[in-house]
Design brief:
Elements lengths: L8 E4 L5 H13 L8 H6 L4 E6 L2 E12 L2 E9 L8 H15 L4 E6 L2 H6 L3 E3 L5 H6 L13 E6 L2
Parallel strand pairs: 4-5
Antiparallel strand pairs: 1-2, 2-3, 3-4, 5-7, 6-7
């Protein structure tokens, strides 16, 4: 069992994080488990990202994408190899939930293969079809559009 990482700094992404973000997201995208993001897109959307840092190294990331007035999506949630199972993903999701609350957005969703992780964070499994905003924003461009195997999860914030 991996030890819990106590010295993790979760912070807003800065321009110097674009390359580590790109490398991490590209690694997931090559395995078909995350949509790719170009350096240019990451640069334009940097304010949407938070990163987890250990000893000055970016080891995790996640972002929030507004899909409507009352809905945001957790996107690009990833942890670098060697740092999984240490609580970093939980810290990132907690940070993203705090940001959604700060923006007064009552619902937060994700498409994931890690359903049990999100259930532990208070999310419920729901039908993807209840998110037409997501379908028309991203799914329409995805190679898995007609045979998506990700599971939709939703948390209503109180």
């Amino acid at each position: 069992m991996a030890s819990v990482c106590k010295d993790v700094l979760c912070r807003s992404a800065v321009p110097e994080d674009v390359e580590p973000l790109y490398q991490m997201i590209s690694g997931y995208a090559e395995r078909g488990i995350m949509l790719p993001r170009s350096r240019e897109v990451l640069t334009r959307q940097l304010e949407l990202f938070i990163v987890a840092e250990v000893d000055g190294q970016v080891v995790g990331c996640g972002s929030l994408c507004k899909l409507g007035a009352d809905l945001v999506e957790i996107r690009s949630l990833g942890i670098s190899e060697g740092h999984k199972g240490m609580g970093i993903g939980s810290k990132l999701v907690e940070g993203l939930i705090i940001e959604a609350r700060r923006q007064r957005i009552p619902k937060i969703m994700a498409l994931t293969y890690e359903v049990s992780f999100f259930i532990k964070k208070g999310f419920d499994v729901v039908s993807k079809e209840i998110f037409p905003e997501k379908v028309w924003t991203d799914c329409i461009h995805c190679s898995k559009q007609n045979n998506c195997d990700e599971i939709a999860v939703l948390k209503v914030l109180n």
